[in-house]
Amino acid sequence: MSFNIIKGIVLITCLCCFSCKTEIKKTTETNASVQAYQPNIIVLLCDDLGYGDLSSFGHPIIETPHLDKLASTGIKLTNFYSTAPVCSPSRVGLLTGRSPNKAGVYDFIPGYKKSPDNRDLVHMQAHEVTIPALLKTVGYETCLVGKWHCSSRFNSKEQPQPNDFGFDHWFATHNNAAPSHKNPKNFVRNGEDVGEIEGFSSQIIVDEAIQWLDKKEGNKPFFLEVAFHEPHEPIASPEELVQKYLPKSENREQAEYFANVENVDLAVGRLIAYLESKNIDNTLIVFTSDNGPETFMRYSRAKHSYGSPGELKGMKLWTNEAGFRVPCIVNWLGKETFTGTSEQVVSALDFLPTFSELAGVKLPERTLDGESFASFLNSGEFQRSKPLIWAFYDAINDRRVAMREGDWKIMGRLVADNETLPNIHNLYDGNEDFVKNAKLTDFVLFNLKHDISESEDVSKSKPEVFKKMKIEFEAQYKKLLNESHIWVRNE
How far apart are CA 481 and CA 104, in angstroms? Predict the structure, then answer.
């Protein structure tokens, strides 16, 4: 299959307001010369896809030929990180280019239910500046299809919704497709309940994306986020694909998981074929996931969760690598770029500054944690000036704060009252002092270039590196903690 596609960027990834009180200034006038180079942007985001779940990333059974071709003709990133090891904060970080802790989204967002820790208040707030909102200032049309999960009150005037963050058209669910990926009943289109839809979620949202593209008038560039529900539970897959995998699987549930991933690949293939048929080129494609794979039977409905972390340690909800190191493929359709496998360290935090540079948008007047990798697309070289840091207070592993800088990763435990900090869903005025006074200690250091599995702590054998990393780590965590949003009721 050929990949000569529309003027634009496609971002594929397997990872949210009242009308904004802070108006984004239109700093760049859209004109003929700007429109000539502005790419379309499509974000395809998987949900709980593991580092080892694509055949191009080493899975021995699952077949993903369309994604594999994107990888072989584009860029395969093997050191790519989501912004959190769980869904809601990961999506908020991707859209804003800032640590989700700064937005006050620390964990997955449940449906609205008043709670003592103010978790019912959590949402991406109106003042957050997002990718679609920025791109709209330079003439882009924007669309979201699939999973939202950036607010506790979905489709409610009480909290911001996708349209408040720059999406012209949205067709989405709060969290998972329900009752499963098959014949979901919980989609909302631009504020209106849709009711039951026949088919499977991955194909349904690609149908919606294609219909939106068909209705577009003129040659304005577009930003399209395709947020797949797959392969998050509750899993349902086409029977013909399940039958295909049964002979190679341990049981039917595993076959359904394998089929679920391939169904996403088929949906991606349909979208690419559509772009090709319409001669849509100059389109950048980035494929990734919101976090790592779910642990089998971590909760009662996780009976299909056979995702693979590959060589990485941990799973979803871990601050070890498998929690947030995820597959990523970049392919700029219709434009020559660097091609091949890259070990450059790239994050979903980098999408906002990168897309802004490519589209000719002035960045918002606030500190971003991401950095533009636009030059990397041509050269294959990208050197981060800032380390990547994660503080996930509900992690399954004990060391809940982690930082990567260059080839090195350092992790630490938070201790209060001589005990490891308990698992925390949310920072609010009732636990702010407790969390901020916790001591970062019990450090470990890994060289990820030589030890992708985090199997050897080299803090003692590399004392100079450890000393330098520890000082930077403590400074970066203190800065992040000071800038983290604290939820106060009736604030």
Answer: 11
| Gap between the Cα atoms of 479 and 483, Å rounded | 6
Contact 453, 52 (CB under 8 A): no
pLDDT digit string (tens) for 148-199? Answer: 999 999 999 999 999 999 999 999 999 999 999 999 999 999 999 999 999 9
What's the helix, strand, coil split of the chain in %, to 5? Answer: 30, 20, 50
**Domain residue extents for the chain:** 11-379, 388-483
Alpha helices in 104-238 (DSSP H): 131-136, 201-215
- Global pTM reads 0.94
DSSP character string of 423-434:
P-S--BTTTHHH
**What distance in Å separates the CA atoms of residue 458 and residue 441, rounded to the nearest whole number?**
16
CATH code: domain 388-483 is 3.30.1120.10
- Interatomic CA distance for residues 210 and 202, integer angstroms: 13
* SS3 of residue 288 by DSSP: strand
DSSP element (H, E) containing 332:
strand 328-333
* Cα dist from 177 to 143, 202, 267, 289, 454, whole Å: 18, 10, 16, 17, 34
pLDDT digits (tens, 9 = 90+) for 421-436: 999 999 999 999 999 9
pLDDT in tens, 204-230: 999 999 999 999 988 999 999 999 999
Structure tokens at 96: 């804003």
| Structure confidence by residue, pLDDT tens digits, 78-90 | 999 999 999 999 9
Q: Do 188 and 171 meet the contact criterion of CB atoms below 8 Å apart?
A: yes
Strands (E), 376-421: 388-391, 401-405, 408-416, 419-420
Q: Which CATH number fits domain 11-379: 3.20.20.140, 3.40.50.80, 3.40.50.970, 3.40.720.10?
A: 3.40.720.10
* 247 DSSP 8-state letter: G
Instruction: Give the SS3 label for residue 377.
Output: helix
- Are the beta carbons of 220 and 141 closer than 8 angstroms? yes
